[in-house]
Design goal:
There is one protein chain. The chain is of the alpha/beta class and 375 residues long. It has two domains: 194 residues, Glycogen Phosphorylase B (Rossmann fold, 3-Layer(aba) Sandwich); 160 residues, Glycogen Phosphorylase B (Rossmann fold, 3-Layer(aba) Sandwich), CATH 3.40.50.2000. The chain is built from 16 helices and 13 strands. Strands 3-2-1-4-5-6-7 form a seven-stranded parallel beta sheet. A six-stranded parallel beta sheet has the order 10-9-8-11-12-13, sandwiched between helices. Helix 5 runs parallel beside helix 7. It is globular and about 65 Å long.
Length: 375
Amino acid sequence: MKPILIYVASEDWAFVSHRLPMARAARDAGFDVHVATSVGSSADAIRAEGFTIHPIPFRRGGLSPLSAISTILALRKIKRTLSPSIVHHVGMQICVLGGISSLGMTTPQVNAMTGLGYAFTSTTARALLLRIVIAVALRFLLNRDHAIFLVQNPDDRAALETIGIDPNRLVRIPGSGVDTDKLLPMPEPAGPITVGFAGRLLTSKGIRALVGAHRILRALGVDVRLRIAGDPDLANPDSVSFEDAKQWNNEPGITWLGHVYDITSLWRDSHIAALPSHREGLPKSLLEAAACARPLIATDAPGCREIAIHDQTGLLVPIENPQALADAIGKLATSPELRMRYGAAARRLVVEKMSAQAIGAAIVDLYNEQIQRTS
């Protein structure tokens, strides 16, 4: 019989967007892949891959104990019914709830920290309290013999060690994999220099700083365009409102596109990719832009600097510094040579270290290693 692998993800669209390369590699390596998630519009896409989907009640960002209990009970039932060979929890909230649902079980767990999120980027009282609660929960729920933590960058590894996670349980794999056969280098578009942004519209993703940088450049008479792909995330306290996002369309040179299904269209129409985020795991938007040979602008922050390497694949700027961001955009806007050099280097980095093939092979090796270690 095929070994059963269960992915537990917050929402079906998030699994499709961020976990397909890993899941496909596991399927191709002989695993029977199951996905436990909150079901929405992407369920058919999951089934089309040959994966079995299991609906669970889940509300991302929710703090209701009753809601958490229903999620825990649903996951526990699925795990007891399937008796999986390994379980892959995705995201901080899922890792905590999944850890509770696995109490008393010895099934190997991969707990993927895809970026430490709002609790670790915000300085509000609520975030600080959440950070304490999360630290305690992770130490006592997941610091167990059959569990490991999967991180995407060295900074997140160090942060988890700081809150008491056993270093021997920490494994780093850089990202979730990018299809470099589908995302290919593109020629620059004609027309004014255009900066592309792809991501949730959160202050912590740097979207307000990026809009501020664009305003600085326009005030100086620089004809730079900004195309914003993504929606507000009202489950996150850091989110921009829909009203603010709509207002950007009224500013000269800014286009808010909303959710973009074909991300290649954004990079085809952009000269530069920007993500001035406060903290990332390893940002998918920059990985995809790099695969398309676009130069990168990002903040010198965890996760971002793993792909946006200063003066190699792009430029790094301080967090929440619109002036420095405007200066970086202006520098690339006036230098076709820099854009071409950085874009080519970004493409090479993704192909060599962060492709779907490389990440898929690494995750399958990790699954097999954990199954053998705990058998």
